[in-house]
């Protein structure tokens, strides 16, 4: 079992992924932007599985800060075997009303943040000639979603990066896949207006929002030996919505 980095592991989907990978026997680095206490609580749960779990706070949207974090991780814990690019934000608004800052913030965190980690962690994995990279995209990046022009552009970009990275890193034994969740019950969706939530549930054949653990299960599969020959794919986990 190897070392896994989960960006945005302090809450929601990232916390569930951290716990599942720990249950599968991986040491974990739990990254967060600011909720160190929440991340520590996740780390504590991970340690109960007998693995190492450390919390590291850094902003994935800053390239140099990612470089610094990765060099500390390598010195303390070794080269990561698994990278889960999960950190993400929303700044929703209709296309014609969206402010430039809203667009830039989402692209910076959700797309460039994933690039920062993918390129620099990918280089380490290439030297190690092994690795698993899983990017958390969204159905919004495949089907679009009114009110999320910034978010859907970032997630579609992330799916494109997944396919290119698969072609560039495959020869070094590294798989690169994306998981595209539908509506999942986390802080990100909790604050949506009730009307939007009710409308969303009507579009989901399984008739409910997904649980973070249901995304974690897909990520753990893609990180496992059972998925050794799967790369460049986007696994949609949305209760049948799209
Ligand atoms: P949450 O809002 O619950 O958690 C977001 C996580 O990202 C937190 O851990 C947060 O850290 C971290 N984060 C945000 N910005 C940064 C940054 N600049 N640097 C480092 N960490 C950062 O989100 P979810 O769990 O709902 O979403 C996780 C991923 O899944 C996202 O990429 C999201 O786009 C995607 N997704 C979610 C869906 C949903 O319905 N919930 C649907 C489809 C995709 P902190 O706690 O410190 O703020």
Give your account of this protein's structure:
The longest helix is centred in the middle third of the chain and has 29 residues, at 100-128. This protein starts with a strand and ends in a 5-residue tail after the last strand. α1 packs across α9 (212-223), α3 runs parallel beside α4 and α4 (100-128) runs parallel beside α6 (149-169). It has a 7-stranded parallel β-sheet, with helices on both faces. The mean pLDDT is 98. The protein has helices at 12-23, 36-47, 63-77, 100-128, 140-143, 149-169, 187-190, 194-202, 212-223; strands at 3-6, 27-32, 53-57, 82-85, 131-136, 174-181, 234-237. α2 links the parallel β2 (27-32) and β3. The chain has 242 residues and is an alpha/beta fold. It binds NADPH dihydro-nicotinamide-adenine-dinucleotide phosphate (NDP). NADPH dihydro-nicotinamide-adenine-dinucleotide phosphate binds at residues 7-8, 10-14, 31-35, 38, 59-61, 86-89, 109, 113, 136, 138, 181, 183-184, 186-189.
Question: How would you summarize this macromolecular structure in one to three sentences?
Answer:
This protein has 242 residues and is α/β, with parallel strands linked by helices. 49% of the residues lie in helices and 15% in strands.
Number of helices: 9
* Structure summary, number of beta strands: 7
Fraction in helix: 40-55%
> What fraction of the residues are assigned to beta strands by DSSP?
15-25%
In what order do the strands lie side by side in the largest sheet?
3-2-1-4-5-6-7
Terminal Cα span: 34 Å
Q: Give the overall average pLDDT.
A: 98
List the secondary-structure elements in sequence, H or E.
Answer: EHEHEHEHEHHEHHHE
Oligomer: single chain
Q: What are the bound molecules?
A: NADPH dihydro-nicotinamide-adenine-dinucleotide phosphate
Q: Identify the overall geometry.
A: globular
| Uncertain stretches | none
Main structural class: alpha/beta
What is the CA-atom radius of gyration, in angstroms?
17 Å
Largest sheet data: 7 strands, parallel
């Amino acid at each position: 079992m190897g070392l896994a980095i989960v960006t945005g592991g302090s809450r929601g989907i990232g916390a569930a992924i951290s716990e599942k990978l720990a249950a599968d026997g991986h040491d974990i680095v739990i990254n967060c932007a600011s909720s160190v206490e929440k991340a520590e609580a996740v780390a504590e749960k991970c340690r109960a599985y007998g693995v190492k779990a450390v919390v590291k706070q850094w902003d994935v949207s800053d390239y140099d800060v990612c470089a610094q974090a990765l060099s500390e991780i390598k010195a303390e814990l070794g080269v990561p075997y698994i990278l889960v690019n999960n950190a993400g934000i929303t700044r929703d608004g209709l296309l014609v009303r969206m402010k430039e800052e809203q667009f830039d913030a989402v692209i910076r965190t959700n797309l460039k943040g994933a690039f920062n980690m993918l390129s620099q962690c990918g280089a380490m994995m290439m030297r190690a000639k092994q690795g698993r990279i899983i990017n958390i995209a969204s159905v919004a990046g495949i089907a679009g979603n009114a009110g999320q022009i910034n978010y859907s552009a970032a997630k579609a970009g992330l799916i494109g990066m997944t396919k290119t990275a698969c072609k560039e890193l495959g020869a070094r034994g590294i798989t690169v896949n994306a998981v595209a969740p539908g509506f999942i019950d986390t802080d990100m969706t909790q604050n949506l207006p009730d009307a939007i939530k009710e409308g969303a549930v009507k579009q989901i054949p399984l008739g409910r929002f997904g649980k973070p653990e249901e995304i974690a299960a897909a990520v753990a599969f893609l990180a496992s030996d059972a998925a050794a020959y799967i790369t460049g794919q986007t696994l949609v986990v949305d209760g049948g919505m799209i």
